[in-house]
Design a protein that fits this description.
6-stranded parallel sheet; about 15% strand; 3-stranded parallel sheet; Rossmann fold; 2 domains
Length: about 300
């Protein structure tokens, strides 16, 4: 099957994700092409004609931008969309159902809210629980530059301001900790004790393979729709202990037994101390969570193959 995979540019969140999926689909014998979403850039007829000349059987897309979807509307083939965020919808994730038959024919999503809504209109809906892990095993390694006591990987920007993120800001990000804490990603204050900068491409496994612990967060705009942030999958796969709030809106699907839930900065400090000292309970949790996420990863790929082939 000839497949076009729509991807985001680096360092946007789905860059590695879609590249991994494209490689997996290629390994199954499909002829796969990757096309970077336009991100609001203009296009011309020649651009559309180049895509049409490929004569794709299927387009597999992210929750891309309006310009990209304008192009996809003009391509006559089956369309599958993987929705892991509200994306460009203005008020609610369920607005994606309005574009069935236009931007997508089959829906693949980790939002149980969206999956339940879409099933009212079509049976071509597949729900997955945890996002894919786009990390190769040989990239998971312990390197000196990332041997911090605790790390966070993700963007700052709006997280420094929105009221819904105040709890996480106060607990994790707007304080000097008594341990070595580094934040990697765009849009954070450039404090020497705090900012690790932009993580180089391919270093997610090295970061999580070296740090003693890592912070996970799920923003309100994700958790109200039943979405689990992809960093939880990556951290679990790399066997770094996860420190997180236990968000009441989130169904952890069994992983709650293996995550270090906290309610205060003091509890964060206590968990980091245990991680630094290789606490036996922490080690057992990490091993069990790795087994859990390995099953989730395998299940995700099986569901992806089903969606593609049906």
């Amino acid at each position: 099957m000839k497949i076009i995979v729509i991807t985001q540019p680096f360092p946007m969140g789905e860059y590695h994700w879609k590249r991994f999926e494209a490689d997996h689909l290629s390994s199954l014998g499909h002829e796969v092409y990757m096309l970077e979403q336009l991100n609001g850039r203009d296009y011309d007829q020649a651009y559309i004609n180049q895509i049409k000349e490929l004569e794709p059987d299927l387009i597999y897309s992210t929750p891309a931008d309006h310009k990209t979807f304008e192009v996809l509307e003009q391509i006559n083939c089956k369309k599958i969309i993987n929705i892991c965020s509200k994306g460009i919808m203005k008020t609610h994730i369920n607005e994606w159902t309005n574009y069935r038959g236009k931007w997508w024919d089959s829906l693949f999503t980790n939002s149980i809210v969206l999956a339940d809504e879409a099933k009212k209109y079509t049976s071509d809906v597949m729900h997955y629980e945890y996002p894919l892990i786009p990390i190769e095993n040989d990239s998971i390694e312990d390197v000196p530059q990332y041997r911090h006591d605790c790390v966070f990987l993700g963007q700052g920007f709006h997280r420094l301001e929105i009221p819904e993120f105040k709890m996480e800001r106060d607990t994790f990000f707007l304080r000097e900790h008594e341990f070595d804490f580094k934040v990697y990603g765009n849009g954070w204050p450039n404090y020497d004790w705090y900012a690790g900068g932009l993580l180089p491409d391919g270093d997610i496994g090295r970061l999580y393979g070296s740090a003693k612990s890592a912070i996970g967060v799920i923003e309100q705009d994700q958790r109200v729709y039943g979405l689990i942030n992809n960093r939880y999958s990556e951290m679990a796969y790399c066997k770094v202990p996860i420190i997180s709030y236990d968000y009441p809106e989130v169904d952890w699907f069994g992983a709650e037994k293996y995550i270090n839930f906290i309610t205060s900065a003091n509890e964060v400090k206590d968990v980091v101390h245990k991680c630094k000292n290789n606490d036996e309970t922490i080690i057992k949790q990490v091993d069990n969570l790795k087994q859990f996420i390995d099953i989730q990863h395998k299940t995700y790929l099986e569901k992806l193959e089903h969606v593609i082939n049906n």
